[in-house]
Design goal:
CATH class of the largest domain in chain D: Alpha Beta
Number of domains of chain A: 1
Low-confidence stretches of chain A: 1-13
CATH superfamily of chain A: Probable tRNA modification gtpase trme, domain 1
CATH topology of chain A: Gyrase A, domain 2
Low-confidence stretches of chain D: none
Strand content of chain A: 25-35%
Mean pLDDT of chain D: 96
Strand order of the largest sheet of chain A: 1-12-2-8-11-10-9
Shape of chain A: globular
Number of domains of chain D: 2
Largest sheet of chain D: 8 strands, mixed
Chains: A alpha+beta (about 210), B alpha+beta (about 110), C alpha+beta (about 1000), D alpha/beta (about 425)
Number of strands of chain A: 12
Structural class of chain D: alpha/beta
Radius of gyration of chain A: 17 Å
Shape of chain D: globular
Order of helices and strands of chain A: HEEEHEEEHEEHEEEHE
Oligomer: heterotetramer
Largest sheet of chain A: 7 strands, mixed
CATH class of chain A: Alpha Beta
Number of helices of chain A: 5
Order of helices and strands of chain D: HEHEEHEHEHEEHEEEEHEEEEHEEEH
Helix content of chain A: 10-25%
Bound molecules: flavin-adenine dinucleotide, nicotinamide-adenine-dinucleotide, flavin mononucleotide, zinc ion
């Protein structure tokens, strides 16, 4: 599984401020039993996120070009994701992917240079979304509270991702390992979303940090 | 919950979709040549069938694709789904598509 | 000491039952303290204490007792708990006893014994079905009478206090869902579960077992509950099986989705910390096995509602499961073999069974014989035709009846008793099957409706399918469970079916109405009598649906669980039609009532709808912003300065200040909420050309243009600026309100109507923080903020767009203006929003920069005559708004061909104008109606209305308004009246040009 | 016809209620009628009643496929009001409200019309402005309206959420004091009884399944009980209009959608008025039986299923608790749906059709209960005179072609957004 400490270790340019800054009170909250909190919630920030999209004959060109520049081919199957996080590529729509990595380079420009000549569209979304990582034994219960997909361990496995509505917000959910999920929501809703997640997690106990 | 088989995302609850409406309405291909009656028909007039209805839903909380859905308006049963341009009645392989739908959840 | 408890509970048996005698529990009913045990329900505990009178009926306020032992209870409804947890109409039979429980009887005044409203009963000959339709029509009017009717109706009372508990929702999926944890459901879950399928088993009560908990029955030669516990353990051991008790599957919806409510904390005084009270489950099931059991029906005879009259199955439940005697001397009355089993169970519990009255000409031999062997007197071909007693039963009248059940054929004799256990047969719980679209069919064999063909992936088993024998229930449960798994591709192994010692039973003989005079209750809760059914028939309300609505049969909290079948059958007899033809009323969810709290879950209070914050939110909050919501966004409306409050005068002062200081110097407003859409691809310009009414093909890179969009019907949809930021790349802005709709609109045309266009669109609203810098000094501020960008008028002209850096951050600068001032919009990636905002504020300090809110922004746009929400009300055309000249006749665009219909060209259409008060000071409010003359009496012909208003234009020094008026600009100079009759205001206003300020645009081009 | 009265009720109480007559007959269909109305909902029955009463036409049949009043008339949230802004609607609904005010006497049947007031809450300045415009327009049209500020709303409805925890604070509201509720079933029954007394044949369990046409006229209807001839024919089948019109090869600017409603367990009076939330889809009133009757938005997709779905119910209940948090422990007793005839501008269509002797009464959306007497009154006029009355002249079928939509919400040609 990816090591979240290295993911978080990107270099933030001056003033880059997360939508959740000041909102995450590190520590244990809610009910807990001897096993400790049921879920740990961390913010992943700063991240680079760039959407790439192509149409018709542009697609094959784009897949090749992204493979060349990222060392990773965007996954063909809908709702799957690939990569260890440096970067990770998530399918987000027909011929559309989101490339995500801890911020360390100007990913937008890298991809523009590589892909635009082939006709693809490249859009920087790195600031438009907030991302939480949820992990722990109760993580699937929290997903069950917020969203209507089948979150059973047999049904939603590592390498699957999905866009759905979670706590009434559009969310992109990426399964990293059996008990770890990365969730992306629109930046403006991040505070509301965090409140919903923590409320839902209270009965299992949760750790923020 | 009506469960709609998004051609990309599989079986999802209808609360992830936004309903657009009758899929059989063809926007006049050549706007200037279309008569007032044709425009009126496109914008305002509906078959409104009781039974199978081809309609467009947008998977707005998912992959944002527009999906054509053949759904029975009397039973709410989804008989088939496809891309916006597919004619679902033409290839009406209802049961087969439903089978596929059963396994399609979140895949 | 524990043993002494028995004497506190005079009707408690010395042994037996599922109660925990080591856990005595004290509780209150109507202010008096009693003792019960853990494992009791409120009903069983009350009975154990000899409390028989627990409620009053809906209409006649008749004394009522405990009638059943389950969710079908029509009588024993109480108000439970206090304060914000107060809960009316709670069935005593479903409340698990907990320490400190506080319940009160309801629908009585001043108290249960002396209910004044029982006078209604004296008037019962008047208060027949539908009496109110026939009277109360004259003076003083229905509103007067209604007041009294409503006082008498309504059962329990509500609360106005907020509920301190919280609720929750969950979604889950399974292969096989089994609803009901009786023998049939358990067998189904075992059969399906052993196949490896994901199985869920829902049971409404606190434990598995169903009727087995209430009966003295053996399975495999041992008490049946031992088998149940073994099966429960076996299910527990299967990791693909989830058993949920205290969970009611209450509705069967489309897509094989079942909704259920889990009562997590209702059996406790209060939920434990962090726990919720109830949880709503959405269960998406591959197949469903409905094993919901059956409900026993009462018999319809005179006085069948007295406290002490009880369903036979309930009497067995009380003695067997709760070790409570529901009476000391009993009569049992039935039309089926239930009476003998009941008599034996009561007899064994030390209750004196005076007689078994079997309405069948001759009762089934074997069962009867058993009872007789036990020394119980059994009468056949007879019926209980009346009951007696004031607040509770003390005797019954028994008489022989004819074989057809229609007449009394012999002398009446009386037996004294305080318990009458009755059974009219069993009605399968076909509710969920019906929700799923199934239509129940009549089975004369059991005189009840059973499930018909299934419409969704479901099948019923056990008593719920009309299979009443225990062995058959088990067999069918296993079979249906296995079938469900098989149909989903699993291979279920055969499971072992335990053998039952249940004796064979004989058939029942339907008896829908016992002969004899007097009121016979069909629906006990709503006081619907057999004569009401007859009256409904006489008056033509003969469809069961009319019957229901005219008499309220089956409309109470129990939804007719014990009454509908009897009522419908009586109607069938009256009509002379078959029961099948008469049919049932519609079954609707929920199966049992469920709390609104559970349905709402966590989506209440502030979480009713999520809120959205811009990147500068915290800065605004720290700097005095008063927020207002706009399409989920929290936006600063004004910024308060020290000492200012939110009283109107202070607010007005702040608004004026923000306008004046911006127009006089420089101000900045957060416009991050505007919709932003990134458009890329070779056909982008063509696409924009089709979307907007104006042309886009000639826009050079680095320039912005204002655009107007119509809906397909020719009405204005949205406006905004779009900039060309690259050869094939554009950046569109939309209004805040339409950000989502415009995005979907564009996607729809690209995916559905014009798939040939190679254009990719994506919302980047959240990616960019946006701020508008406005005022004559804005250029100076911008110059100080940007790095290496020439911002002179020549280098960055009006509608110019440039990329630059501010505070080291990549930024886009657009020279566009909403305020009418020299102005710039700065966009930066959102995580830099606050830092850049602060930087601009810092460099602007020496120029006197201020932040301004949406109010000042609105006033400046009104001064400038820009249209916004008030004008874009979904009914206005481009022409109406004075924007028709933007339209390009050289191309096709959405809405063009519908905008030339006759109604669009009508000269009488109100058109966009400005308005000023003739007296120079009166404020014409938004929503005023424009008329020619302020003296006319209604109906007054209206010329238009005021759509936006600045109660004071700080710039002009007087109020100004925008509006639409018939004749539009052709009437400039004329006066009309702005009428606001809601506040008795009439203001004479003059029609003027809507651009009040800087008509020639010198300031924004400066 | 003074048959129902307190006196007669008492007299009957003594005689065991044996003397009450059938409220309506159950006649066999005749071969031929002057006018056939399809649909025995409130509108169809009111049309027949007023045709007989006001226009002297007595040879009328109302054909009903199920039981009379079993359509939307029997399943709506019973709100009656005339707080419309647009001319075409305002005068029509006001006429209807005036008819409501005398309906019980007119029918000699207590329809329990309860003018307890209807208040729409506002949660923003913009909403207050929109309400002001509507209220002022109403007043200029001679219709009662009051604009309440927050304090006034609080005084009248203290149980609403005025706390800081309210997601959408209450700014005020627009109230129509003459608005209220009526006992929906009684409306159908009273009209049926009234029409029956005037000789109208109400024929239940009689579904119209086809038509006989000659030239541009309908000469007879085919029904599940045989063929029945007619001179003129009016459709008043609400959500089934599209289906019926299709049998004539006619397509309409109408879609059928499902609207849900639900009722709580009965309570002593808690809410003594009708109130609608302005920041979500929710409205509530309390029935005389004590149940809180809740309604919300349509389910958004075409449907003839007469039953709805959980997402909308959950939304409506959330909105309800956002508005009145103390209802949280109250239990919902039953929920159901009805099929709405959603028109393309949200306003009704009452008038002539492209077929010479066919008249249409449809497009009521979620708001046609309040129109019941008015609809019958103008429809009767239109059928009797082959000419709309002045107050339904703007509600024609051809208004879409002519670009004269009556779009009270400004939502455009999207039926599910009205
Ligand atoms: C849940 C809900 C809430 C509502 N709330 C309100 C409200 O608060 N206020 C308000 O003013 N309005 C409300 N409405 C709308 C209102 O109920 C309807 O607009 C109104 O009742 C329509 O009356 P109607 O007589 O036209 O139709 P209906 O009462 O539906 O009558 C039409 C009849 O036609 C019959 N029919 C259909 N096809 C045929 C056929 N082929 N042959 C013979 N008969 C046929 C049907 O069986 C039906 O009985 C609501 C509607 C619903 C469903
Ligand atoms: N003697 C008779 O004539 C007669 C008649 C009826 C039943 N019975 C006996 O009753 C038993 C029937 O067995 P069964 O398993 O079919 O039924 P059951 O009544 O034993 O069990 C049904 C269970 O389903 C639960 N339930 C019902 N609806 C539910 C819902 N919506 N959600 C969650 N739980 C729900 C009930 O609480 C109950 O525990 C057999 O023992 C049978 O012999 C006998
Ligand atoms: C205003 C109103 C009040 C109602 N009150 C009750 C009620 O108290 N009890 C009840 O069971 N149903 C009540 N209903 C619902 C009806 O039972 C029924 O569900 C509805 O008329 C739809 O009919 P259907 O369910 O037969 O399709 C009410 C319906 C309305 C419109
Ligand atoms: Zn999808």
């Amino acid at each position: 599984m990816p090591d979240s400490s290295t993911e978080a270790a990107g270099v933030a340019p001056l003033g880059r401020q997360s939508a959740l800054s000041g909102m995450i009170r590190p520590g244990d909250h809610g009910a807990a039993d001897y096993r400790g909190p049921g879920v740990t919630i961390t913010e992943r920030h700063p991240l680079s996120m760039v959407q790439i999209e192509a149409r018709g004959p542009e697609v094959a060109v784009m897949l090749e070009a992204s493979n060349a520049v990222l060392g990773l081919r965007p996954p063909q199957a809908p709702n799957t994701s690939v990569g260890d996080g440096h970067p990770r590529i998530l399918w987000t729509g027909p011929n559309r992917w989101l490339v995500v990595e801890p911020e360390s380079r100007d990913l937008d420009t890298v991809l523009q240079d590589a892909l635009i000549p082939g006709g693809a569209a490249v859009v920087d979304l790195g600031h438009g979304r907030a991302s939480l990582r949820l992990s722990g034994r109760s993580v699937r219960q929290i997903l069950m509270k917020g969203a209507g997909l089948d979150w059973h361990v047999r049904a939603f496995t590592p390498g699957m991702c999905a866009q759905t509505t979670m706590f009434h917000l559009p969310a992109l959910i990426d399964c990293r390992d059996e008990s770890t999920f990365d969730i992306y929501v629109a930046r403006g809703f991040a505070v509301s979303f965090l409140e919903s997640v923590t409320q839902a997690a209270a009965e299992y106990g949760y750790r923020l940090g | 919950m009506i469960r709609i088989n998004c051609p990309y995302c599989g079986l999802r609850g209808h609360d992830e979709f936004s309903y657009i409406g009758d899929a059989t309405k063809q926007r006049p291909a050549s706007p200037a040549d279309a008569t007032a009656a044709e425009w009126h028909d496109f914008v305002y007039i509906r078959d409104n069938p009781r039974g199978p209805h081809q309609e467009i839903w947008q998977h707005i909380q998912g992959c944002r694709a527009f999906v054509r859905v053949l759904r029975n308006t009397l039973t709410h049963e989804v008989l088939a789904t496809g891309l916006p341009q597919d004619d679902l009645l033409a290839g009406a392989s209802g049961p087969a598509k439903t089978e596929e739908a059963k396994t399609g959840e979140a895949s | 000491m524990i043993f002494n408890r028995r004497f506190d509970q005079p009707f408690r048996l010395a042994e037996g039952g599922e109660i925990d005698r080591l856990a005595p529990v004290s509780f209150r009913f109507d202010g008096k303290t009693y003792q019960g045990y853990l494992g009791d329900t409120l009903a069983s505990a009350l009975l154990a204490n000899g409390v028989r009178l627990v409620g009053r009926s809906f209409k006649y306020h008749r004394p009522r007792g405990i009638y059943s032992a389950g969710p079908e209870e029509p009588n024993a409804l109480v108000e439970l708990r206090t304060g914000g947890r107060h809960e009316p109409n709670t069935r005593a039979t479903m409340i698990e006893l907990f320490a400190g429980l506080d319940a009160r009887s309801q629908n009585r005044w001043p108290n249960l014994l002396l209910d004044v409203m029982q006078l209604n009963a004296l008037l019962s000959p008047v208060f027949v079905a539908g009496f109110y339709y026939k009277t109360f029509m004259g003076m003083p009017g229905w509103r007067f009478y209604e007041h009294f009717i409503r006082k008498a109706a309504g059962m329990g009372s509500g609360t106005t206090l907020s509920d301190p508990d919280s609720y929750d929702k969950m979604h889950t999926h399974c292969d096989v869902l089994v609803i009901g944890g009786g023998p049939a459901g358990i067998a189904a879950a075992l059969a399906a579960g052993r196949s490896g399928a994901r199985v869920m088993l829902l049971e409404e009560s606190d434990a598995l077992g169903g009727r087995l908990r209430s009966e003295r029955r053996n399975l495999n030669g041992e008490p049946a509950m031992r088998w149940v516990r073994g099966a429960a353990a076996a299910l527990e051991a299967l990791d693909t099986v989830t058993v949920m008790t205290r969970t009611t599957g209450f509705g069967y919806y489309d897509g094989n989705v079942i909704a259920a409510v889990e009562r997590i904390s209702d059996h406790l005084a209060t939920p434990p910390e962090h726990a919720v009270r109830q949880r709503l489950w959405h269960i998406r099931a591959g197949r469903v096995v409905i094993a919901a059991g059956a409900t026993e029906r009462p018999l319809v005879f005179t006085g069948n509602d007295r406290p002490g009259v009880m369903l036979a199955s309930a009497a067995r439940t009380y003695v067997n499961r709760f070790a409570v005697q529901p009476g000391k001397a009993a009569v049992v009355f039935a039309n089926n073999d239930d009476c003998y089993q009941t008599a034996l169970d009561l007899h064994r519990a030390g209750i004196e069974v005076q007689a078994v009255v079997d309405s069948r000409p001759d009762g089934h031999g074997a069962a009867k014989q058993q009872a007789e062997t036990a020394g119980i007197e059994c009468v056949t071909g007879a019926a209980v035709i009346a009951s007696h007693g004031y607040l509770g039963l003390n005797s019954v009248d028994i008489a022989p009846i004819s074989a057809d059940g229609l007449t009394v054929t012999g002398p009446v004799w009386q037996l004294s008793c305080d318990l009458l256990a009755i059974s009219g047969g069993w009605s399968p719980n076909v509710h969920l099957h019906s929700h799923a679209g199934g239509r129940p069919v009549y089975d004369p064999g059991i005189a009840a409706f059973i499930p018909g063909p299934s419409r969704q992936a479901e099948r019923s088993a056990g008593a719920g399918a009309g299979t009443l024998g225990l062995a058959d229930c088990l067999r069918q449960g296993a079979e249906v469970g296995a079938e469900a798994a098989t149909l989903l591709g699993f291979t279920p192994p055969a499971i072992e079916i335990p053998t039952s010692d249940e004796p064979a039973t004989g058939p029942l003989k339907a008896l829908w109405r016992v002969p004899g005079p007097g009121k016979k209750y069909v629906d006990l809760q709503d006081d619907v009598t057999s004569s009401d059914v007859e009256l409904a028939h006489r008056e033509g309300y003969i469809s069961v649906e009319h019957l229901k609505r005219y008499t309220t049969l089956g409309m109470g909290t129990d939804q007719g669980k014990t009454s509908n079948m009897n009522g419908h059958a009586i109607m069938a007899e009256e009509r002379g039609d078959s029961i099948e033809d008469v049919g049932t009323t519609m079954f609707r969810p929920p199966y049992n009532p469920i709390s609104l709290g559970a349905i709402a879950g966590r989506d209440i209070g502030m979480h009713f709808s999520p809120t959205r914050r811009s990147a500068m939110h915290d800065w605004h909050a720290e700097n005095g912003a008063v927020f207002v919501e706009a399409g989920q966004w929290m936006r600063p409306q004004i910024y308060r300065r020290d000492g200012e409050s939110d009283v109107k005068a202070d607010m007005d002062r702040a608004i004026s200040r923000e306008v004046t200081e911006t127009r006089g110097g420089v101000g900045m407003v957060d416009v991050s909420t505007l919709g932003k859409i990134d458009i890329q691809g070779p056909d982008s310009a063509e696409f924009l050309n089709r979307l907007y009414i104006n042309g886009w093909k000639t826009l050079p890179v680095g320039r912005a243009r204002y655009g107007l969009m119509l809906r397909e019907d020719g009405i204005v949809f949205d406006d905004g600026t779009t900039s060309r930021v690259g050869e094939n790349r554009y950046f569109m802005t939309t209004t805040t309100a339409n950000a989502g709709p415009v995005m979907s609109h564009m996607e729809e045309y690209l995916q559905v109507h014009w798939p040939e266009l190679n254009v990719k669109v994506v919302s980047v609203t959240e990616q960019w923080a946006a701020m508008a810098l406005a005022g004559p000094k804005s250029r100076d501020v911008l110059a100080a903020a940007v790095e290496g960008l020439d911002v002179s008028n020549e280098a960055l002209p009006f509608m110019g767009v440039r990329e630059t850096r501010i505070a080291g951050v990549k930024a886009r600068v657009f020279r566009i203006s909403f305020s009418g001032e020299l102005a710039y919009e700065i966009n930066v990636p959102a995580d830099h929003g606050r830092a850049v905002w602060e930087r601009v504020m810092a460099v602007g300090a020496e120029h006197g920069i201020i932040p301004y809110g949406t109010e000042a922004m609105a006033i400046m746009r009104i001064e400038k005559g820009h249209v916004a929400g008030g004008e874009l009300d979904g009914r206005t055309t481009a022409d109406d708004l004075g924007l028709g000249r933007m339209s390009s006749s050289k191309k096709e665009y959405i809405g063009r061909r519908m905008a030339d219909r006759e109604g669009f060209l009508d000269p009488a259409r109100p058109k966009f104008v400005g308005l000023v008060p003739v007296d120079g000071k009166s404020r014409a409010r938004v929503g005023s109606v424009l008329v020619a003359d302020n003296t006319m009496q209604p109906p007054v012909p209206m010329l238009g209305h005021i759509s936006s208003s600045a109660y004071l234009s700080p710039t002009l020094g007087h109020p100004i308004s925008l509006g639409l008026v018939e004749g539009g600009m052709s009437r400039v100079g004329e006066t009309v009246w702005a009428m606001f009759p809601l506040r008795d205001e009439a203001i004479e206003v003059r029609i003027v040009d809507p651009v009040f300020y800087d008509k020639d645009g010198e300031r924004l081009h400066a | 016809m003074a048959e129902y009265s307190a006196f007669n009720l008492l007299r009957n109480a003594i005689s065991g209620h044996k003397d009450w007559r059938r409220a309506w007959r159950d006649p066999e269909p005749k071969k031929q009628y002057d006018v056939i109305i399809v649909g025995a909902g409130g509108h169809g029955l009111a049309s027949a009643f007023y045709l007989a009463k006001n226009h002297g036409i007595r040879n009328i049949a109302v054909l009903e496929k199920g039981y009379l009043g079993g359509g939307n008339t029997g399943r709506n949230t019973t709100i009656v009001r005339s707080n419309y802004m647009l001319e075409e609607n305002a005068h029509f609904y006001e006429k209807s409200l005036q008819l409501w005010e005398q309906l019980s006497q007119e029918l000699n049947f207590n329809v329990m019309f309860s003018q307890r007031g209807v208040t729409n809450l506002a949660h923003s300045d913009n909403q207050m402005d929109a309400f002001a415009r509507r209220g002022n327009t109403m007043r200029m049209n001679g219709i009662d309206a009051e604009l309440l500020d927050r304090a006034q709303v609080r005084r009248e409805m203290p149980y609403l959420d005025f706390s800081d925890n309210a997601r959408f604070p209450i700014y005020g509201g627009l109230k129509q004091p003459r608005g209220g509720t009526a006992r929906h079933d009684a409306v159908a029954w009273g009209l049926a009884r009234g029409a029956d007394r005037l000789g109208v044949d109400i024929i239940q369990n009689c579904e119209v399944i086809g038509f006989k046409q000659k030239g541009n006229r309908i000469t007879a209807v085919e029904t599940s009980r045989g063929e029945i001839g007619c001179e003129r024919i009016g459709f008043a089948v609400a959500g089934h209009t599209g289906h019926l019109a299709a049998k004539l090869g006619m397509k309409l600017p109408i879609e059928s959608h499902v609207l849900q409603a639900f009722v709580s367990e009965p309570l002593k009076t808690l809410i003594d008025t009708v109130v609608t939330y302005g920041a979500g889809h929710f409205y509530v009133s309390q029935s005389d039986k004590g149940g809180l009757v809740f309604g919300g938005d349509i389910d958004m997709y075409n449907s003839y299923a007469q039953r709805g779905n959980t997402p909308m119910i959950e939304h409506v209940v959330s909105a309800g608790l956002a508005m009145i948090p103390s209802l949280s422990r109250l239990r919902i007793l039953r929920h159901w749906g009805g099929i709405m005839d959603m028109s393309m501008d949200g306003s009704p269509i009452i008038g002539k059709s492209p077929i010479d002797n066919l008249y249409l009464n449809c497009g009521w959306c979620y708001g046609g209960f309040k129109a019941t007497p008015g609809s019958g009154w103008v429809f009767a006029h239109t059928i009797a005179n082959d000419q709309p009355h002045a107050i339904n002249a703007g509600l024609t079928l051809d208004r879409f072609e002519r670009g004269r939509m009556v779009d009270e919400r400004g939502a455009g040609p999207y039926p599910n957004r009205h």
